Amino acid sequence: MQDTVLLVDDEEGIRTVLSLAVADAGYEVLTAENGVEALDILAEQEISLIVTDIKKPGMDGLELLQRIKKDWPDSEVIMITGHGDMDVAIESLRLGAGDFITKPLHENALEISLKRATEKISIRDQLREYTENLEHLVLEKSKELVEAERMAAVGQTVASMSHAIKNVAGGLEGGMFVLEKGLELENKEYLRQGWEMVRRDVERIKNLSMELLDYAKPVTINPIDADPNAPARQVHDLMASQAENSEVELQLELCDHLPAMRIDTNAIHQCLTNLVSNAIDACQDRLEGEKKVIIRTLDGGGMAVRYEVEDTGHGIAPEILTRIFNSFFTTKGSRGTGIGLMATKKLVKEMGGGIMANSGVGQGATFTITIPTAHVDT
User: Fold this and answer.
1) Helical segments of the chain, H only
2) Alpha-carbon separation of residue 351 from 43, 274, 300, 341, 344 (angstroms)
3) Which residue range forms the structural domain that includes residue 23?
4) pLDDT (tens digit, 9 = 90+) per residue, 297-333?
5) CB environment 343-357: b (16+ within 10 A), e (fewer)
6) For residue range 125-157, what is the model confidence (pLDDT) as tens digits?
7) In the chain, which stretches have pLDDT less than 50?
8) What total number of domains does the chain contain?
9) CATH of residue 53
């Protein structure tokens, strides 16, 4: 397809001579007598190559150049000037002209200038196409990467859930085996033990289902002006009987100079309940030595409150400590689901806070929650 060149000159003879030269160079030619006519043609037809004389009656070449660059910035404009108009020619380059040629016009000079302009347009179009293709490629690859990461996360979650369900199923199979032996031998003790095992694992299935439903629910944080010690005190009172039944001493150490703060007491209560329950279980597994859990509040530097749950349990190995907040990871073996710490981390994150754990094998563990707050004016 031929490129079209628009020639703009007020002298008919020059337009005729230039038209023949440009046509011989392989271009389709349109002509305009002045700037206004040229703009009318450009408004009706897309033309990327314009050759115009700088000096013309009415709208001169510089004004036409500025109008073209404003409305058709990708067009290439070649200016024609006399030998004495070099300053004007240089000004035209500053305004966006692609090239200028001087009178008297040499046929080869015009042809070379048009060829350079055509190549420039071609390179710019190729670059634009390449950029668009690259952006499209990056977008597609980004989508593929996100999808791959999502599927990997789904796969990891499914695998972890399967492991948790497998543990429960294994417990049920054990309970069923004991029940069958009890029936076979007519042994009431076997029947009692088997039924207790089945009942326990059915309870675990129910708890797992409820925890999964709770975890999947969207979290809404509702901060209120409250005493930051209140959630710790309430959890201590709530978990006291469980600790006593497990022969674990439950202590409460409250910071007595914490001001009223804007916090979500219900969310903090849920987090502390999960941590204290885990701490009691950790102490319960200890065969000897002191069994103690401490719920502690600390001043987090004026704009935060810290909650600590410390236990004297069996501790957590360093290689496990980095994984305890992962999906469905548990240190309780067949007794745990791994959802409690997942849910706790999710709640803490929604409150804008952070959670961390410190421990060593045989040294107990300390979980620390830091919640940013705002002091209440009194």
Assistant:
1) 12-24, 35-44, 61-71, 86-94, 107-185, 188-216, 229-245, 265-284, 318-321, 339-350
2) 59, 16, 15, 15, 11
3) 4-105
4) 999 877 899 999 999 987 887 777 776 766 544 555 4
5) bbbebbeebebebeb
6) 888 888 878 777 777 777 777 666 666 545 555
7) 1, 153, 328-329, 333-336, 375-378
8) 3
9) 3.40.50.2300
